[in-house]
Design brief:
By secondary structure, this protein is mainly alpha-helical. The protein has 4 domains: about 5-65, lambda repressor-like DNA-binding domains (434 Repressor (Amino-terminal Domain)); about 75-240, no CATH class; about 240-310; about 325-370, no CATH class. Helix content is about 50%, strand content about 5%. It has 18 helices and 4 strands. It has helices at about 5-20, 25-30, 35-40, 50-60, 65, 85-105, 130-145, 155-160, 195-210, 225-240, 240-250, 260-275, 275-285, 290-295, 305-310, 325-335, 340-350, 365-370; strands at about 75-80, 160-165, 175-180, 185-190. The chain has a 4-stranded mixed sheet, sandwiched between helices. It is elongated and about 75 Å long. Residues about 215-225 have low confidence and may be disordered.
């Protein structure tokens, strides 16, 4: 069904704000005066196909996006600060884009249901920190992680049906999640520190598995009970307390646990489990292995020399431009099977695919590839 001029105008205005463009800049790009843009965005003036195509190109949005409703009425987000609306909108639009990509790839049969998506909504009421931590242990056990360190978070989330991409958003937003039927999308702010990015991803996984329909005002790290419980899930999912206690028992039992030895083992945990230093100190406190005075003395972040001596330099993930590997593979499969054209494949891959591989059947002329070019 065609959308109304009012809805189209709202979509144009949303894209303009996300791109930090003025109405005057839009008018110049399209070749009309500014009052025409004002009327278009208010729905009182129709826009021609050529004008819409020029506008879409200028704003960096795919043309079909302007002609469709948002895939969900609410995009849930957690913010660090309030006020940077363009960056927040950019994150929300990135979630919409990826949701549309996943829907198409699922419809084409190249993106199967995630193996552990069945966990979503299966947990009983999460009433306290222990409930949340137990849920994290269940998720780890189901995915076969046990107490081991997790690999790249995008791969971890893929297996639960939570597909991820990243944007650069300053301090505007930590993470965005867009729940869908059978899967969900999360967008992580790549401007966060590496450890914080992984924590945000685990936090979004907690909300997703708990099947939360939570308000856009929910702020990560706030004192709200729900956020506190989801933070507990994230901490246990990234670094189980059993792993902390096991390392302590194996390395420090019977030894003189002076502050330097504690620091060395904490550095090993931080680099191995790829968790922020503040997160590690919090976990040590929760495990009853350091007191407040020791935690304060340990606060200075590890130096590169310390990481090389007692741990390892962690490999960053969830960097700017990162995309779910499951989505990337599905897009390449769809292209190589002639289900989508090269321009659509490059669009889904966010330009990260470089030169596309050859189709499996170069002579195939599937009308769907032309339609999805």
């Amino acid at each position: 069904m065609a959308i109304s001029p009012q809805v189209l105008g709202e979509r144009i205005e949303l894209a303009r704000e996300a791109a930090s463009k003025t109405q005057a800049e839009l008018a110049a790009a399209v070749g009309v005066d500014r009052t025409a843009i004002s009327k278009i965005t208010s729905g009182t003036r129709k826009i021609s196909a050529l004008e819409l195509a020029a506008l879409a190109k200028f704003l960096g949005r795919p043309l079909p996006w302007f002609l469709s409703d948002s895939p969900a009425p609410v995009v849930a987000r957690r913010q660090s600060v309030v006020g940077d609306r363009p960056s927040t909108l950019a994150a929300e639009l990135a979630a919409e884009d990826l949701a549309a990509d996943v829907e198409q790839l699922r419809a084409l049969g190249v993106l199967p249901a995630a193996p552990h998506a069945r966990l979503v909504g299966t947990f009983d009421e999460i009433e306290d920190v222990e409930d949340a931590s137990a849920a994290a242990r269940t998720a780890r056990k189901t995915a076969g992680f046990g107490s081991d360190a997790l690999g790249p978070m995008a791969d971890v989330l893929d297996d639960f049906g939570l597909y991820v991409t990243t944007v650069v958003a300053g301090e505007a937003v930590d993470g965005v999640m867009l729940p869908q039927e059978g899967f969900a999308i999360t967008v992580i702010n790549a401007d966060q520190s590496p450890g914080r990015r992984r924590f945000t991803a685990a936090h979004e996984l907690g909300h997703y598995l708990f099947d939360d329909t939570y308000a856009a005002e929910a702020i990560s790290g706030s004192t709200s009970d729900r956020e506190r419980l989801v933070n507990a899930f994230a901490a246990e999912f990234l670094l189980p307390l059993d792993a902390v206690r096991s390392r302590w028992a194996g390395q420090l039992e019977g030894a003189t646990a002076d502050l330097q030895r504690i620091r060395e083992e904490a550095i090993w945990l931080s680099s191995t489990y790829r968790m922020s230093w503040s997160g590690i100190l919090a976990r040590l406190g929760e495990a009853g292995l350091v007191d407040d005075q020791q935690a304060r003395a340990l606060q200075p972040n590890p130096t590169l020399a310390e990481l090389q001596s007692y741990g390892r330099q962690p490999e960053e993930d969830l960097c700017d431009g990162d995309l779910s590997a499951a989505v990337s593979r599905a897009a390449l499969d769809a292209y190589r099977d002639g289900l989508i054209g090269p321009s659509r494949a490059s669009e889904i891959l966010r330009g990260a695919g470089g030169e596309l591989p050859p189709p499996r059947d170069p002579g195939r002329n599937d009308f769907r590839a032309d339609f999805y070019a």
